[in-house]
Amino acid sequence: MSKLLWLLVSGVLYAATPLTLEEAVRMAIANHPQLQRVQAQQQAAAAVPDQVRARLYPQVSALSSGALAEDANTRILAGGLNNPVILNRWGIGASATQLLTDFGRTRTLAESADLRAEAAQQAVAVGRADVVLRVYRAYFGAMRAQAILRVAQQTVKARDLVANQASVLAQNKLKSDLDVTFARVNVEEARLLLSNAVNAVRSSMVDLANAMGFDPGASPDYVLSEEGLPAPLPDVWAEAAEQALANRPELAQARLDREAAAAFVRAENSLQRPTVSAVVTAGVAPLHHSRLQGHYIAGGINVDFPLLTGGMFKARRTEAEARQRAAEAAEKEVRNQVERDVRLAFIGSQNAFERLQLTASLLGQAQQALRLAQARYDLGLSSIVELSQAQLNLTSAEIAQTSAKFDYQAARALLEYQKGVLR
User: Fold this and answer.
1) CB atoms near residue 82 (< 10 Å)
2) Dihedral over Cα of 240, 242, 247, 253: its sign
3) Domains of the chain
4) Chain-centre distance of CA 263, in angstroms?
């Protein structure tokens, strides 16, 4: 093996940091920008109900205004239907407005905002589950790459041994130089497999760092800890479907969006109702004309009863009702998608478990075939071609068994995600 390849393998296997799946998930939850984004969006949505409810409380403003006229006879002669007299004055005061009733419109709007804030909280759960699933997939993918690297190393050693054996036999005129050439070809194929395995490990580390929310260029390589295989699945998938319908945050989010849309429709249907509010204003005028008092206080009731709005209210109600229908359809769509996804994940997990058993049997047969081929070759009963084929079959079986193991773990992680329990 070339010196460069040995350095690559040594760097992959030994200059690495230990990491467990639990630690990877914890770091991803703490660092991943996708989760930070949805958390910030949730915080923004949580502030909206308070903005809506603020209208139910007194609104108090500090006021200050003044005017300077040319003389006591100054009048505004054009520009508006208002008092044209301008008097020298400067006053300061405060004004308070309290909504008395809008017949429930503001409270309904606040209810809709509360539901949307809850939906945003479910979006955080969706984002967290997505991040965790990505970590699981990347982690098991990296473990598969590291396991295949170990297979490649063992393959290089085994084929080197056969090549050396063939070389010794050829020197003693017991085998032909053709056997040596075949053996050396097999060694070079194994080295190519090893080189590809090293590259796959490094690529998997980049994927794992990205799944954990780190800069792939700055994160270290990891030595990953083995995770135990999950238990086999039962034959009935209905339980998994029930769990998914009860636990998936996407369904809860869609339901809350539908309820929020329904509440908003009720609020928009109350647009024609009047709004009644009380107003109180008071203050003093340190600078004022002799015709004015040095202080003032007044109060009143405002009733706003919309009569003509150019069709705006009708258009707003139409929009709200259409959005409600869209939310209802979206909820049904999400439910159908969840049932489909959990069904496919269940089938995929069953198939992955079957492949795990089949590849174990294949590996056993390949190991037995190699032992027999090696014995026949040692006795001079077969050529190097038969032994090479047996070695190739064993390598393929080992890679298939390794891939099946981690594919099963990844498939089970996907199923747990689809059931809504991987968070």
Assistant:
1) 7
2) positive
3) 3-31+103-271+310-419 (1.20.1600.10)
4) 28
Nearest-angstrom CA–CA distance, 324 and 3: 67
Q: At what angle do helices 105-171 and 384-419 cross, to 10 degrees?
A: 170
Residue 169: name the closest of 369, 387, 384, 370 by CA.
384
Distance between the two ends of the chain, CA-based, in angstroms? Answer: 44
290 Cβ neighbours under 8 A, 6+ residues apart: none
Cβ neighbors of 101 (< 8 A, separation 6 or more) are 275, 276
**How many CA atoms, within 13 angstroms, populate the side-chain half-sphere of residue 121?**
11
Q: What is the DSSP string of 13-55?
A: HTS-EEE-HHHHHHHHHHH-HHHHHHHHHHHHHHHHHHHHHGG
Structure tokens at 374: 């090696």
- Report the C-alpha gap between 181 and 375 in whole angstroms: 20
Query: For 20-50, how does the pLDDT look when each residue is reduced to its tens digit (9 = 90+)?
Result: 999 999 999 999 999 999 999 999 999 999 9
Residue pLDDT, tens place only, 126-168: 999 999 999 999 999 999 999 999 999 999 998 898 888 888 8
How many other CB atoms sit within 10 Å of the CB of residue 73?
8
